[in-house]
Amino acid sequence: MVSRKRWHLPGLLLIVAFLLQTLISTTAAHDCSAEEEHVFGENSRNDEWEMDEFKEFCQLLKKRRESPQSSSSKVVDATLCEEEEFDVAGLRMLFVLMLMISYGALVRSVLKFFKLNIPYTVLLMISGLLIGYLSTNFCTQLFTYTSIARIPPKVILFTFLPVLIFESAFSISPHTFMRSMVQILIVSFPGMIMATFATGLICQQFFAAYKWSFVEASLFGSIVSATDPVAVVAILGELGTSEMLSVMIEGESLLNDGVAILLYEMLIEILTCEVKGDLVLYIFRKFCQITLGGPALGFVMGKIAVYCLSLIFNDATVEITITLVAAYMTYYVGEDILGVSGVMAVVALGITMGAEKTSISPEIEDFVHHFWAMLGYFANTVLFMIVGILITETALSKIDIEDWIYLLFLYISLNIVRLLMLAILYPLVSRFGYGLTWQNMMVMMWGGLRGAVGICLALDVYDNETLCQQLNLGPKFLFQVAGIVFLTLVVNGTTTKMLLEMLKLTEISTGRLQDMANAVKQLENAQYRTVNMLKHDRFLADSNWNYVDKYTIIKNPYGKKSLPSDLPLNQSLVSIKANSQDYLTECPDCHTLVKNEPTNLEFMEMTEEARLRVLKALKVSVWRQFEQGVLVELAVLNLVNIASATEDKPLRLVHASDLRKYWRINGCLPWIKKRITKHLGFQDEVLPPMPKNSCRRAVWWLVTRDCFEGVIILVILLNMIPAIWESVYIYDDNLQTSKFENVFFGLSLFFNCIYLAEAILKIIGRGPHDYFCVQKSNWIDIIVLILGGVDIVLYIIKIKATSVFVFVKLLRVARAVRLLKPIVPRLMLFVDKKINAKLFLGYDVGKGFVTAAEDVIKYLPQMVDHPKVMHKLKNVLERERLETVREMGIMQKDHPGIAIAVKTHHASRAVLNQMKESLMELKEDGLVDAKESDIIMIKLEENMKKLWNTPPSIAPAPPESLLENVFWIGGRPEIFQFFHERAILLSFAYGDIIFNAGERSNGVYIITSGMVKIHYIPTDTIVKKFDQDGEIPCMELFEDLTFRTSEDDFFSTGTVLGEQSILTNQLRAAVVKCETNIFAYHISEAVMREALMKFDDKFNSLECCIWRAVGMRVALAVLPKHPSYSSWTMDKIRLRLEKSCVPIGDEFNTIKVYDFIADILIIQGKVKDSFSNDIFFAPQLVPRGVSKLELIHSPTIKTRVLVIAYDDVDTASAPAPEQEPSKIALMKHLDAVVEQGCRISENDRTSKGSHPSKFGHRAKPRKAKRDLSMKPGFPTSVTRRSHRSRGFSTTAVNDEVGDVKRRK
């Protein structure tokens, strides 16, 4: 046993060494044969020598196993070492491989440096041709270094083809590919077959010297018809032409390679007489293998790979390895094991994984794409170099002058055949997908380049044992295919760009010209602002700014482009933007400026260009949200697919109706839940009240135990055995009595007694009403019990077995339905989980769209230059955003647990993202070592991974928790207790008005359930006060900071209404209307005044806290639009605002800007620079050059500012005695804010159970038919407030609260 274990490792190493030695020796023997005989392409393997060597090797292994001493292993190893010397051929191949890759990098750099419009692969192939020519005719020593080009063609296909196919399929647009699928299939399958046999017919008729039969000519046609448009696709990508055209050409290439290999295998087996059986059946089987087997295998492997990727989080090595193994494993399994098309399988694999890219970790996705781009670069570089070497070393042997003539004729014929094929299929192809124009058809014809697949197949024919003896096949195939590859690459590849320009497919549209001009203008503004800012830097002030301007200037790349020349003169002039409404055009003759408006056609083109850009920006925002972890995978895929589908619909954006299907629960799941739970009585069991009688109380305790139900279930299972036995026995004996009848009767009597006792105990313990009316499933037990009694009676009175009697016996098996009782709750749990998961996805989709729409609206002025187009798109986006918010509010009202789960997921990931960013900053600043940083990062990623399992529904917290979470209440128990004792929970019906415009507020409302709509209509008075005094309108909307346009928005649970009016006594500027039935805490104006007087701490008064809450809302609207914060995320801005305060008091009428102050935001009124006397109005950031400012109070409003400190300010440190009192006061204000935030965080971490338990208790829930207190998220007593007559009448809701309904 010990010696066998010793042998395993050395034996395995010997086997591996033998296999490597055989491979190297085979290559070396091939090289030597080529050098000595100069017969290129001849197979030099010696099968007899290999067999003898293998027998000798087996004898050495046997000798090794028989020797128990380790010394014998040394003898065997020495023997092996003496017999074979090390061959450097393998190292030369590796060395040449590295040289090829390095040369490819050099070629790319040269092309980029000299800006040459030559396809990269063309130069590589020409370089390979030169190397092969030199190694054959001038430098025989170089021939030993080109042995990499003489490896078997199958090895080339298995090595490079999976990489090239998967890289193309994985990077292709799934939406565009699927929409163009029918077009691609038509061109790839019927088109490829037509091209194959048409080429074969031409070759048979005109290549008379070759004497090819039709099968041989068709075999050549299948080889030479496979396309490889790498160069053309690269040119299309560089020129920015239609994505549809690129996908059509690349998709056709991916599929017709598989069809070409299929036709090649079929024809070569027919030619070599290897087909057994019916030829038609063989062709049908082969066709099914490629059309069904390959794609099915690729789809299955793709799903497996996606599942494996979904289990990994932020591990680049593992995720890249999975994609690499999936590509090669799919190709190998398809080709070598299952016998299906490996090409089709890898194509399906790439498309499947590309459509589900969200399975890859967001942080890793770029690495995966870069990895495959690098592999594609390596494969193309090596492959085209090998093709060039093969052509001159192998294909040019035994070539006559007629072969060159045939080559030119074949090149012309192939282009004509491809053009005719596309023309014949054009009527059909143009009616599917995106359609097909004649210009695109011409590009597809000219872009049908040939590549490595044809070369490898021709080499396979050249090396075929059966066909290699025919000189008119192998050598001719190889020469003609190699010549076509060279001509298509050199001629078609280099002239494709010229063809695109001739067909006007590279013209830049008006919208793109304006986009480029707008982008350059934005960059010029950024350069101007940055230069002006740096001129004030004390270290850079003496820089040579002329050189800075020279080095940083950027010119419009489309500067020399113009609008199409066929437009009228006044339409082709360059427009100069004069203001937000008008465009002026300078006449080239009189140099006067005239107003210029685009034509309807130009306006539609600009709108379409802007629409596509907006949709692209929506997708970018969605992917950014996914990278930040706030959107789940399915939500991202659905949103991206919706946006991609909308791109195909002219002049249309994403609508809320497109998302509505994710918010509706349809299908069988709701039906199952409703029917089973309601009609069969399988609701969640509610125990009846405990009886007062002591005897009944004992029985109640017994029948309500789970163990009692378990015993009954066990009895039913035991009863099923004789019941089924008797039923089978009766059926087999044809209703005849037997000796077992007494046994059956005894068992039936026994079990019926148990069932009767169960029914009596439940009726006594639970009560008759609960047994017969509440638990409806008990009627099944009653019916079966009656049938059992009838059976016993019939047996006692000796009635013969009749059909009715037998039917009664058989019905006893119906008691098995009782077994569903423990199963149904679990089934309902599963159904609820699925429903909640769908609703979770729907809410997440809505949240993602709202966030994406807000991002696009924010950057829309930078994306669209024309004001009319911009306003049109903005109105549509704003309308759909509001509709989506409204739908989400209704969903939150109907399913509060779903909304809470989504919000919890988003909040958790936002916190983890900020923690991760803080850790990275600590690492970059050198405050934490790399090892400790990696350990903490692993912990953070583990927490991120836990968010994958976020429950789809979380029970809402009680309203008291929402009250405590109010910004100016939380963290201070005394304030919470004060408001908790005085706040009243009110209910409002749909359509009720909470606040009306032009009225004074009667208090503060905190929404605990439901949704309201806030509608703002500007008035002359509001706009005048805003312009003169900087008075911010009293409302909660801050989208338009000019307050000159009407606004609408929806707010739901957690929103606080009426804070500003309590502070300023302003009249309401917006209407607050209920969109659903809502519940809200009401804190009256008198209570708020009392609280403001009571909690008046100098540095942390309640008034300061409320002003800070208002100021932070204003800041979140102002800061993202400021250049200093434009690149900041909202989470980062919120983090900066955590150290902010609103100082109140006479000592703060003048504020000095100290070094710890980052910014000062005017949130109400106006301020003045103490030195320059410049006046700044709210809402505005005070310029950073201001060092001291004065607050200007008006008779009606007091000015308030939000002081924002830097993050690293230590507010808790003791102030120095020499510091100014105002500075010390500001530091204390900030310290109070930080301390309150710490208390809130500590309360959140330590609180367990309900919040009222810390500050008070809730009343016990009253017993009612539909007691509101039994529902999560609602208190025990609710007051209803009716606003129909604005009389503020209140009525108590005592017995029943109706379901929330909304009017259509």
Outline the structure in words.
It is a single chain. With 1304 residues, the protein is α+β, with helices and mostly antiparallel strands. Helix content is 62%, strand content 7%. It has a six-stranded mixed β-sheet with strand order 9-6-11-4-20-21. A four-stranded antiparallel β-sheet has the order 5-10-7-8. Strand 15 and strand 16 form a beta hairpin. It is flat. The termini are far apart.
What would you call the shape? flat
- Number of DSSP strand runs: 21
Helix/strand/pairing class, anyone?
A: alpha+beta
Query: Roughly how many Å is the radius of gyration?
Result: 41 Å
Mean pLDDT: 76
Low-confidence stretches: 1-51, 64-83, 562-582, 1247-1304
**Sheet with most strands:** 6 strands, mixed
What is the terminal separation in angstroms? 83 Å
Strand order of the largest sheet: 9-6-11-4-20-21
What helical percentage do the residues reach?
Answer: 55-70%
GO molecular function, one term: sodium:proton antiporter activity
GO cellular component, one term: plasma membrane
Keywords: Cell membrane, Ion transport, Membrane, Signal, Sodium, Sodium transport, Transmembrane, Transmembrane helix, Transport
Protein name: Cyclic nucleotide-binding domain-containing protein
